[in-house]
Amino acid sequence: MSLVPLAPRARSLPASVRSPGAARLARRALALLPLLLVGAWAAADWRTVRDGTARLASADPWWLLAGLFYTCLGWVAAACARQGALPERLPPGLLLASQFAAGAANHVLPASIGAHAVTLRFLQGRGIPLARATASLALYSLVKPLAKVPLLLFFLAAFPDVLRFGDLLPDRRTLLTVAGGVALALVAAALLVTLVRPLRRPLSDLSRTALTDVRLLHSRPSRVLALWGGCAAAPVLQACVIHAVGAAVGLPLTWPQVAFAFLAAGTAAGAVPAPGGIGPVDAAMVLALAAYGAPLHLATATLIGYRVLTVWLPLLPGALVLSALVRRKVL
């Protein structure tokens, strides 16, 4: 009997044997990647961790505990907003775990790319089609900044004598720069869609899915409340964290002042694509607190403590949850 017909099968056998092992190896590498990124970032920004820990060591522990409680509520608000952007019902426990893990990814990659990537993988793992999952991310990204507008108007109407709106407004040059950047981005997107034909079909399908889901979601009060309420509650809870940390270190500002300063600073500097908003938002927030008369060293200590509670403290647990979700094939 000739052995020639068996040669192709003998060559194909190792590939079939190797493929499960390669898949397991790739999944283990993906599970370890969040921890490696956390370690690299901690090494690069070790001074902030050290200074923040030293500041918080002498702060009021009860106020810090309140800040940690508001931080945990922020993940619940994010999970509610993600559910509100989808018609399908998602498992609450896994959704909350995915948003906790997405927080860790969000502080490593800029412009919320990490959080959106984790959420997209989670939605696809739940059987959500790619077009609908992408449309939900787009809707969430659109509602998130729009939900700040009624909050700002509420603060202006409710606290007209306390808030110094003029001190927190960007100057004319900054406004023109932001407007020019937005206009250029819109023109570039239009040209890209016009000139690159392969993008037209996917974008057309995505637009139709998004419009259909928007009409469907806004016909269901529970989804409207979850989406808009979650997006509006998230910045309020972050402001509560800053106020709690400020009270712990002795910052002489009221909650309305801190909340409005955070909303104004986040709106002004949130367009800069920094990981988790770290950098531009922090600088704008320190300036906003100083505009209310807060001492600069206390404003800086407040922001360092805020980042420790919202970034560094949950970063390692979030990376571990992200790794666990990858190992269990949830992501």
Domain unit count: 1
Roughly what percent helix?
Answer: over 70%
Whole-angstrom Rg: 23 Å
Shape call: globular
Mean pLDDT: 77
State the low-pLDDT regions, or none.
1-18
Number of helices: 14
Strand proportion, as a percent range, falls in under 5%
Structural class: mainly alpha
Order of helices and strands: HHHHHHHHHHHHHH
Largest beta sheet, briefly? none
The quaternary state of the protein chains shown equals single chain
Task: Report on this structure.
It is found in: Cell membrane. Pfam families: LPG_synthase_TM. It is a multi-pass membrane protein. This protein is mostly helical and 331 residues long. Helix 6 (130-146) packs across helix 10. It has helices spanning 6-44, 46-57, 61-84, 92-106, 113-125, 130-146, 148-158, 165-168, 172-195, 200-217, 221-249, 255-269, 280-291, 296-327. The protein has one domain (45-327). Helix content is 80%, strand content 0%. It has 14 helices and no strands.
Write the layout of secondary structure elements.
Blueprint: H1 6-44, H2 46-57, H3 61-84, H4 92-106, H5 113-125, H6 130-146, H7 148-158, H8 165-168, H9 172-195, H10 200-217, H11 221-249, H12 255-269, H13 280-291, H14 296-327
Helix pairs in contact: 1-14, 2-14, 3-4, 3-11, 4-5, 4-14, 5-6, 6-10, 6-11, 7-12, 11-12, 11-14, 12-13, 13-14
InterPro entries: L-PG_synthase/AglD
Pfam family, one: LPG_synthase_TM
Main location: membrane
